[in-house]
Amino acid sequence: MKLLVVGSGGREHAIAKKLLESDGVETVFVAPGNDGMTLDGLQLVDIAISEHSKLIAFAQEHDIAWTFIGPDDALAAGIVDDFNTAGLKAFGPSRLAAELEWSKDFAKEIMVKYQVPTAAYGTFSDFQEAKAYILEKGAPIVVKADGLALGKGVVVAETVDQAVEAAHEMLLDNKFGDSGARVVIEEFLEGEEFSLFAFVNGDKFYMMPTAQDHKRAYDGDKGPNTGGMGAYAPVPHISQDVVDQAVETIVKPVLNGMIAEGRPYLGILYAGLILTDEGPKVIEFNARFGDPETQIILPRLTSNFAQNITDILDQKETTITWLEEGLTLGVVVASEGYPLAYDKGVVLPAKSEGEIVTYYAGAKFSADGQALLSNGGRVYMLVTTADDVSAAQTRIYQELDKQKRPGLFYRNDIGSKALK
Ligand code: AMP
Ligand code: GLY
To answer: Which domains are seen in the chain, by residue range?
Structure first.
């Protein structure tokens, strides 16, 4: 079987590598991918994620069994609908089902309608009304651009002034363009943050282990929000009871709600949750795998990944199994300056193998092909599975210490919350 993965980051590297390791898979293409992926035998295809008709033509010419869609913007642009119209199978939600991610207001409406626990909120396109709501509710309060904004459209405001400024930037200064033409303003939720992922087809779903991302750039959750600087799974301090509660109060009603709305969901459902005193509540839904969470979740999958996705696409029952023991932890190495301006072209260390797995995100061969160079904000990620958090941290940080070089940085405390 030949497969295609759409996307170019560490998430797509982990998806494609796991697919290539599945019995029955000969070739995995990644469009457009990044050069680091070729070190794992993945084949790059020079087509951008926005070029749906070229991707479709490629899949037809190369007899691709199905295509796995990685990124949110491709889903929001209707890539799955276009593949299906061409008679091709693609794993990911339709444009209408993916609205759970690409409109925070839509996600809120669904949650209210189907009684899914989430923060109280208001949606505004008028700045004066948004400001009046902020003044009425007080701080802390959270201001979110309605549309996709690369994870950067959320401001957790500690003061009323900060919140008003954020609403001003989004609604009047067009900071996020159309994505910020409406804002969702919501109650600040206090508690431990974690993520739940599921493979979904309609009302059938298969839960994955719990995961915890680290969104801020620097140690101690300081600095600006990023795409994610490291993660681990499972989260030892989130009990099975909490997961069961989230499945009953969040996953089931949302999936049934999407069916009732005529937008049945197929693909990965990603729920960003906060465990409050009243139980788990939703802070966001994403319509795709997380990055960097995929890189620490998929190594724990012990069944045949390609077969699992094939079965789900064929509406068949499948058996998905996970490593029961230990913990998988990964640390992202990023370009100095990320998520703001940064330089490219730092020569990367040799790929770690064996107990440590390397997933590449922003990596490109030098012109002579002799070296792999940094070529993006997040550059690569080291992942390992060990008995517990401290064993995993020790192994990864010893390796990162050897790989340290000017122009790149990483957080030193990934997983430390699980030690407390
Ligand atoms: P999001 O892009 O929606 O995941 O938001 C980015 C980050 O902002 C989240 O990872 C949370 O840490 C924080 N956040 C978002 N919404 C809330 C909320 N209602 N209460 C507290 N923190 C929030
Ligand atoms: N790691 C956060 C995300 O993928 O949205």
So the answer is: 2-91 (3.40.50.20), 120-187 (3.30.1490.20), 192-314 (3.30.470.20), 327-419 (3.90.600.10)
